[in-house]
């Protein structure tokens, strides 16, 4: 079993915080979709087994026309064996979700929407340079529910600069009231080459402190828990039945095929691959049968480090058996000593075979993982 990730690298507008790969020029869109279809065919024998999940991410997948979306899905069905109850997630921006668009998506077989709401506060949305308003976000969620989508996720961002006076509690309440099945809440990060980064560097405003962000995080963890959302990963909340199958497979080291510019792939063992983050170079590589990707083979301790990082972020935890298999005696001893330090501070729990960071401390998962990382000998 494996998942397919498709990267659709176009956006109408650039959000002030985003450094994902995308272009606001649509000139090469047709060619690029053809190349995604070509890549899908070329790589059909790369991973064994059936396709369990398909994930359209971006950029903005909701800029795809019905014809383009169906051409990609048909290409997958022609070249791969897809399970009957495949999860098909589609990331979309609220401004694209008309009644017509939502009907096209449901007819094409999309059964999970991930809507980029980010905030229900128009001042924040404007500052982010988003193209939708809070009313539009609420209306498109209602419309999607009316049309028959029963597995909807929304993305929210917390930790925005304090001058915006954002009322995070109101945002959380509106998210809960919207009756969606899944909520992702991301801490705003200041990425290089974004206008957020430039503005902060120029001293126009500053990012909130770690303490402020931790407070916002605790607020959402507590409020969502009261409303029946389990935090199954640092940034992801839902009931068991609505956890993202696709993202959960990343966290448990299941193989995935990443197609499109900047997409990453993993063979489930020790090979990672990433496609070039440039639309023209990606197209050129596929049209001329040339290079458009790089491959890295991970050593055993690097695989262990990935398992530690991903496992501690989620409620799946880290299997001690797996880590022991990947490390030599000396490395495992060093690892265990570090684990003991975190256990004493009550930041890690250990059951017979599993290491777990519980929900209240999970915001520290990346820090704890880095402290546990095995270094080259
Ligand atoms: C890359 S976008 C793609 C989906 C779609 N275009 C959208 O904007 O919703 C996926 C999610 O990444 C999150 N994201 C992107 N850059 C971020 C940043 N610098 N800090 C926190 N979250 C970020 C946003 O919440 C966004 O919804
Ligand atoms: S957050 Fe989404 S819409 Fe905004 S620039 Fe990034 S990919 Fe595009």
Order of helices and strands: EHEHEHEHHEHEHHEEHEEEHEHEHHEEH
Q: Compute the CA-based radius of gyration.
A: 21 Å
Largest sheet: 9 strands, mixed
How many discrete structural domains?
2
Strand content: 15-25%
How many helices? The count is 14
Distance between the termini: 35 Å
CATH superfamily of the largest domain: tm_1862 like domain
What's the count of strands?
A: 15
The CATH class of the largest domain is Alpha Beta
Multimeric organization:
single chain
- Attached small molecules: S-adenosylmethionine, iron/sulfur cluster
Shape: globular
Remind me, CATH topology of the largest domain? pyruvate-formate lyase- activating enzyme
Mean pLDDT: 96
CATH architecture of the largest domain: Alpha-Beta Horseshoe
Numbering strands along the chain, what is their spatial order in the largest sheet?
Answer: 7-8-6-5-4-3-2-1-9
Question: What class do helices, strands and sheet pairing give?
Answer: alpha/beta
* Helical proportion, percent range: 40-55%
Descriptors:
2 domains; 3-stranded antiparallel beta sheet; binds iron/sulfur cluster; 20% strand; 15 strands; Arc Repressor Mutant, subunit A; alpha/beta; binds S-adenosylmethionine; 377 residues; 41% helix
């Amino acid at each position: 079993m494996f998942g397919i990730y498709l990267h659709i690298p176009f956006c109408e507008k650039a959000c002030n915080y985003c450094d994902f790969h995308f272009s606001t020029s649509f000139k090469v869109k047709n060619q690029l979709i053809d190349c995604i279809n070509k890549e899908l065919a070329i790589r059909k024998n790369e991973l064994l087994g059936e396709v369990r999940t398909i994930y359209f991410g971006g950029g903005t997948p909701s800029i795809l026309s019905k014809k383009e979306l169906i051409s990609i899905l048909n290409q997958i069905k022609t070249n791969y064996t897809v399970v009957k109850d495949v999860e098909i997630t589609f990331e979309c921006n609220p401004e694209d979700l008309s009644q017509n668009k939502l009907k096209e998506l449901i007819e094409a077989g999309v059964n999970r929407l991930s809507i980029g709401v980010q905030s229900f506060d128009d001042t924040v949305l404007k500052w982010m340079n988003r193209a939708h308003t809070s009313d539009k976000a609420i209306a498109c969620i209602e419309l999607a529910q009316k049309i028959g989508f029963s597995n909807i996720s929304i993305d929210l961002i917390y930790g925005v600069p304090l001058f915006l006076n954002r009322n995070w509690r109101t945002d959380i309440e509106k998210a809960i009231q919207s009756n969606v099945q899944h909520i992702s809440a991301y801490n705003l990060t200041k990425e290089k080459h974004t206008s957020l980064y430039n503005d902060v560097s120029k001293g126009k405003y500053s990012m909130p402190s770690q303490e402020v962000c931790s407070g916002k995080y605790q607020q959402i963890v507590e409020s969502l828990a009261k409303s029946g959302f389990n935090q199954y990963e640092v940034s992801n909340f839902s009931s068991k039945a609505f956890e993202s199958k696709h993202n959960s497979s990343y966290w448990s080291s299941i193989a995935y095929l990443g197609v499109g510019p900047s997409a990453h792939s993993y063979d489930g063992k020790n090979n990672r691959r990433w496609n070039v983050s440039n639309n023209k170079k990606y197209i050129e590589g596929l049209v001329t049968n040339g290079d458009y990707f790089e491959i890295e083979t991970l050593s055993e301790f690097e695989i262990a480090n990935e398992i530690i990082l991903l496992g501690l972020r989620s409620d799946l935890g880290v299997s001690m058996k797996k880590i022991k298999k990947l490390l030599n005696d000396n490395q495992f001893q060093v690892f265990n000593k570090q684990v003991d330090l975190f256990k004493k501070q009550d930041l890690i729990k250990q059951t017979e075979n599993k290491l777990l960071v519980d929900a209240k401390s999970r915001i520290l998962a990346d820090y704890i993982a880095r402290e546990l990382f095995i270094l080259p000998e």
